[in-house]
Specification:
This protein is α+β, with helices and mostly antiparallel strands. Helices cover about 40% and strands about 20% of the residues. Strands 2-3-1-4 form a 4-stranded antiparallel sheet, with helices on one face. The chain is globular.
């Protein structure tokens, strides 16, 4: 009986559907990163020394969803940094409340250093923040005009980051 129940439940579990296009993948990743950001703000790290968790369970679960959707930028994805050319400058556009941009998450210190140097070499303020459930999160800005934000988003995509988005942190 238990075996039949386990087999029936296993049949209910399905693999996530492949994401159809780069635009769909980017939209999925942005949604998952924003949910991760929300969980991180609702459940700040209150880790006690005797616990083995690196983050609260809802934050860990949100991080797992980001990883499952393949939203983490791998070294091979950043090959575009070697040849990326900044887009022609956009018109400044409307003034916006200053906001930063989340370029993406990298998995190692070499990628972090290369990404920071790449963006700084293009005149952008770049920094990283560690996230135990994800890796090193790369942030740019802040930007005070829509044109500057759009240019930074385009440059991040050209460098190989699949789903940059405006973010407050």
């Amino acid at each position: 009986m238990a075996f039949a129940l386990a087999a029936a439940l296993a049949g209910c579990a399905t693999a996530p559907a492949p994401i159809a296009s780069p635009a769909d993948r980017a939209a999925t990743c942005v949604t998952r990163f924003q949910y991760f950001d929300l969980m991180e703000s609702l459940y700040p790290n209150q880790r006690r020394k005797d616990e083995q968790r690196v983050a609260a369970p809802p934050v860990e679960a949100a991080g797992q969803r980001v990883r499952e959707a393949r939203c983490i930028t791998m070294t091979v994805d950043l090959a575009g940094m070697a040849t990326a050319v900044p887009p022609p400058p956009s018109p400044p556009g409307a003034a916006i409340a200053p906001i930063s941009m989340h370029a993406g998450v990298v998995t190692n210190m070499a990628d972090e250093a290369n990404a920071i140097a790449f963006f700084q070499g293009h005149g952008l303020r770049a920094r990283s923040i560690g996230s135990a459930p994800l890796g090193r999160r790369i942030y740019l800005g802040p930007f005070a005009s829509q044109g500057a934000l759009d240019d930074a988003l385009a440059l991040a995509r050209a460098a190989g980051f699949a789903s940059p988005y405006p973010a407050s942190f």
